[in-house]
Amino acid sequence: MGFFRSTNRTGPYFEGWYFKHQNPQGQTLALIPAFHIGKEGRRTASLQVISREQAWWLEYPEAQLQVSRQPFQVQLGQSSFGRQGIDLHIQQDNLSLCGSLRYGPFTALRSDIMGPFRFFGGMQCAHGVISMGHSLNGTLELNGEFLNFSNGSGYIETDRGHSFPRKYLWTQCLWDGPKRGSLMLAIATIPLPVSGFTGCICSIFYGDREYRLATYRGVKIEAWSSSGAVIRQGKHRLEVELLNERRQPLRAPVEGRMERTIHESLCAEVCYRFWHGDHLLFQHTDSNASFEHSSAD
């Protein structure tokens, strides 16, 4: 999977890791430590913190970032993020965030979500899934509010490249119940030297198996917009319908520089329907789903 490529490179380049945490009471928090190099060679690190109500951006000098590939570990300032969990010690500007969370075993994909596209060196952005779901234990304190994530669930993914796609949709959701589920879908315009295409990657864990729908497996994108998407692959059909959202501004890379503003709903209400022919495998509506749609046009 290659969680970290190397800092021994020239720009433009970015690499970031998305850690999402949620508990049964609906409290949710996401953290995005990242490394970036602009075209001019300026090298910095950052941390974005996203709650249901607010988002924060913190910038760090490159010297305060250390990354290990094996074992997977990101150290940023006095905080660490890795396979065992996170330890946070942040007191900056209007953000106080402290505490520790321990992670259970990761639910990893059996193969790279990018498929053969992982070998295309010229792509704007490559995506990776580190854990489709894992258990949480521990407590964080965010600006005086205690967030107890014990018996909660976590999700981790990563992106690297030089720029986010000009137009894309991304959504993620995981849930407990008689049949636990986890879902990640990304659709994006992919530029090529001559023309380009719209690509799709999707992984659904449900009923003790993974369903993989992707461009490299023949998926057809029937519709996608700021309100959802419909994709089909063989007899399988996924419908995503955004019902409600509360977006927070985040920064995203353009040629390695974190200068583009995008908006993510960390806790959107989204309805997912997954079909096999005329048989509805599941319908799940979740108010803690993540949803993001952006277009630079």
Low-confidence stretches: 1-5
Q: Compute the average pLDDT.
A: 93
Q: From the helix content, strand content and strand pairing, which structural class follows?
A: mainly beta
| Percentage of residues assigned to helices | under 10%
Oligomer: single chain
List the helices and strands and how they pair.
Layout: E1 13-22, E2 28-37, E3 43-51, E4 55-61, E5 65-68, E6 73-76, E7 79-82, E8 85-92, E9 95-103, E10 125-142, E11 145-148, E12 152-161, E13 167-175, E14 181-191, E15 196-206, E16 209-214, E17 220-225, E18 228-233, E19 236-244, E20 248-254, E21 257-276, E22 279-295
Antiparallel strand pairs: 1-2, 1-12, 2-3, 3-4, 5-6, 6-7, 7-8, 8-9, 9-10, 10-11, 10-12, 13-14, 13-22, 14-15, 15-16, 17-18, 18-19, 19-21, 20-21, 21-22
3D architecture notes:
The protein is 0% helix and 67% strand. The chain has strands spanning 13-22, 28-37, 43-51, 55-61, 65-68, 73-76, 79-82, 85-92, 95-103, 125-142, 145-148, 152-161, 167-175, 181-191, 196-206, 209-214, 220-225, 228-233, 236-244, 248-254, 257-276, 279-295. Strands 1, 2, 3, 4, 5, 6, 7, 8, 9, 10, 11 and 12 form a twelve-stranded antiparallel beta sheet that branches. The radius of gyration is 18 Å and the shape is globular. The two termini are 32 Å apart.
